[in-house]
Design goal:
Helix 2 (about 10-40) runs antiparallel to helix 12 (about 265-285). The protein is mostly helical and about 475 residues long. The longest helix has about 35 residues, at about 85-115. The protein folds into two domains: about 10-210, no CATH class; about 230-475, no CATH class. The protein is globular. Helix content is about 85%, strand content about 0%. The chain contains 20 helices and no strands.
Length: about 475
């Protein structure tokens, strides 16, 4: 059969999985492509302000929306197939009410909030409009995934992904707003698109308040807010605290390698799209030995990607300007931190499957608090580079806590079999950590570094069939 015939014969679930992965790669890819454009147009201080705005945006929207478009919405859509329109519009109503309440607090505290976020009142009003209407787009996107309506999802995502940087760059060249042009371009596009879906959902559902839906959503999501917030704080607090202790310029310099290293999250998202459903199928069927084998391959695959990016850091930094050159030593450390997030998520998936969310929340809060304390202690002493190490330490703590909690959960479930090969994972993690830190010393020895890069690429070519077979196994889920 030809590739086209194979695609046509695929079930809708498989087609949707492929297109959602493409959609995610396209969305993240556009964001990655515009990074070198932005850093050439903006000063390091301006680029720092742009990234700090994104950090505050991600933190505040969790509070303003309660992340209602996350877990609770998906779960209820699956459980309730007959009243999805009313449910969606009622969730919008709840989110709107929460955002209005938060806006009321802002009105009385804007003298403190505006300087902290770096926006004046006009921009803050637009940001609150974003908090109200943007979740509508997320609600719509989640529902498309549940109902496997991937065509419309891909088209709309592509349009939004292209419009946002296009308008931002147009405003940059046509006005003197500088980094605020990026902020304004983002908010205008997101608000315009979100408003369309906001009106659409209320028109279809015709329900602002539903006591049963609101009560269940609040009961389900409020206990998870510390978890959601902690994850955002762990990923975003660095830039905010660097600005406070070192200034906007250092925050901008740190943000560039952080964005580069975070590109690995695109790969992780794609892998987890198959890994998590497959894992749950294996846990349900109690086929633990297969979990252990595939997980070992995944850990090695992610480790190889991390090693490759760490070794290629000097070349990667060439897409930036000379102002960012000294941040080359941040990439390996931040990239290693992303590896630890992949490993701890493997452990956390077990906790989620068995409903042990209290452990997930505890690990998240402890990890975030430790990161804040370490940042406050070390950034004033060692500068912005310390933030990369404090985040890495926090992710290591994260991984250790989830490892302990996972073992507790498995013990409570009376599972004595080895779900993961912990000895292998720990040994490989220690080895990878050593190699990544040693890679920092190869930057002065190009021959040695290129030899290691070539060796990694040869290994990928040699084991390419095993990698493809592994991903195919997870997609089968049986």
């Amino acid at each position: 059969m030809s590739v086209i015939d194979k695609y046509r014969n695929m079930p809708v679930q498989a087609k949707a999985s492929i297109w959602y992965a493409v959609c995610n790669f396209f969305q993240k890819g556009i964001s990655f492509i515009v990074v070198p454009v932005y850093i050439r147009l903006l000063t390091t201080a301006e680029y720092g302000e742009w990234n700090i705005f994104q950090s505050w945006r991600d933190i505040l929207i969790v509070i303003a929306s309660l992340n209602l478009y996350a877990g609770v919405y998906t779960k209820t859509l699956v459980d309730n197939k007959d009243d999805r329109d009313r449910y969606t519009s009622s969730m919008q109503g709840l989110g709107t009410l929460i955002t209005i309440a938060l806006f009321g607090i802002y009105v009385f505290t804007r003298g403190l909030v505006n300087p902290l976020i770096g926006l004046n009142t006009k921009y803050m009003l637009l940001l609150f409009l974003y908090f109200i209407v943007y979740p509508a787009f997320s609600f719509w996107g989640t529902r498309q995934r549940v109902e496997y309506k991937y065509k419309s999802m891909v088209i709309v995502t592509a349009i939004v992904s292209l419009m946002t940087p296009a308008l931002s760059l147009a405003l940059f060249y046509l006005t003197d707003l500088r980094e605020l042009a990026l902020v304004l371009g983002f908010l205008i596009v997101q608000c315009a698109v979100g408003l369309v879906f906001y009106v659409y959902h209320f028109f279809k559902g015709k329900c602002f308040f539903n006591k049963g839906y609101w009560k269940y959503a609040v009961k389900f999501n409020v206990p998870l807010i510390p978890h959601y917030l902690s994850l955002i704080v762990l990923g975003q607090s660095d830039k905010i605290m660097i600005k406070y202790y070192c200034g906007e310029s250092d925050a901008g310099i740190y943000s560039f390698p952080y964005q580069i290293a975070s590109a690995i999250n695109v790969v992780i998202t794609a892998i987890n799209g198959s890994r998590v459903p497959w894992l749950y199928e294996q846990l349900k069927a109690k086929i633990y030995n297969r979990i252990s084998k595939i997980s070992n391959y995944l850990v090695v695959l992610m480790g190889g990607i991390v090693m490759l990016i760490a070794l290629l850091a000097p070349e990667i930094m060439l897409i930036g300007t000379a102002d960012y050159k000294e941040a080359v030593f941040v990439i390996p450390v931040v990239t290693l931190g992303v590896f630890f997030t992949f490993v701890y998520d493997m452990f956390a998936s077990i906790e989620f499957y068995y409903g042990a969310t209290k452990y997930v929340m505890a690990a998240s809060v402890i990890g975030a608090v430790s990161n804040l304390i370490l940042n406050a202690w070390l950034i004033p002493v060692f500068g912005y580079i310390a933030a990369a190490y404090t985040t890495l330490i926090s992710y290591v703590l994260f991984m250790v806590m989830h490892l302990v909690f996972m073992k507790i959960v498995l013990k409570k479930q009376s599972i004595k079999e080895q779900v993961y090969n912990l000895k292998f994972i720990i040994l490989f993690t220690v080895l990878l950590t050593g190699i990544v830190f040693l890679s920092l010393y190869t930057y002065q020895y190009p021959v040695m570094r290129y030899s290691l890069i070539a060796s990694l690429l040869i290994l990928v070519i040699v084991f390419r069939k095993k990698i493809v077979d592994m991903m195919s196994t997870m997609k089968k889920r049986k």
